[in-house]
Amino acid sequence: AEVAPGAVHVPDWLPVARQRELVEACREWGRGPVPYERTVLPGGGVMSVRSLCLGRRWVPYRYLGAVAVALPEWLAALGRAAVAEAYGDDGGFAPDTALVNFYGAGARMGMHQDREERSAAPVVSLSLGDRCVFRFGNAEGRGRPWTDVELASGDLFVFGGPSRRAFHGVPTVFPGTADPALGLNGRLNITLRETGLSF
Ligand code: MD3
Ligand code: FE
């Protein structure tokens, strides 16, 4: 479903077996040299989400060159397949970064824009585990109008074109709603991005 121009939601895109593999990969990355961490914002606020970055390193609000953990080619290929699924063509999508967000009990993400990437490429979002409310706003500011969409495990969302600059956030995660077969207590979101930065 096209929620707004360039914003395409594909519910239940990933089969459960693939979701399980992704959850296991997310666990494995967390045991590596770049653990999940709460981001401390320049104003002193601490995000409730725990994040990990593959490929580039992200600090608020920019990417750094040092690549501590490579972005696996199979994950980049999944991103290309995702763009092809949403738009009918992968458009040569070549992500160099995956940002993985973990939402434990009570975690949420305030309304924000993703402006660090120097590329017109879309962002691919994959959801795993607990269901949530994803709030998709407008490019002018944090306020209304917005559209609330429920995201469930296995859902794909691709944000390109005009939707790329829209404010968005995750106001609510519904605890205990993940398929028990996933063995995940909380919600994981993987976003694949082209930073457009070369180091
Ligand atoms: C719309 N993550 O990592 S994914 C983020 O579910 C982020 O963890 C949320 O917002 C999450 O920056 C939402 C959906 C998403 C990701 C990137 C976007 C929507 C976007 C970039 C531009 C517009
Ligand atoms: Fe975002």
Automatic annotation (TrEMBL):
GO terms for molecular function: dioxygenase activity. InterPro entries: Alkb, AlkB-like, AlkB-like_sf, Oxoglu/Fe-dep_dioxygenase_dom. Keywords: Dioxygenase, Iron, Metal-binding, Oxidoreductase. It comes from the Bacteria. Pfam families: 2OG-FeII_Oxy_2 (PF13532). Residues 94-196 form the Fe2OG dioxygenase domain. The keyword Iron applies. Its cofactor is Fe(2+). This is Alpha-ketoglutarate-dependent dioxygenase AlkB. It comes from Streptomyces gulbargensis. The lineage of its organism: Bacteria, Bacillati, Actinomycetota, Actinomycetes, Kitasatosporales.
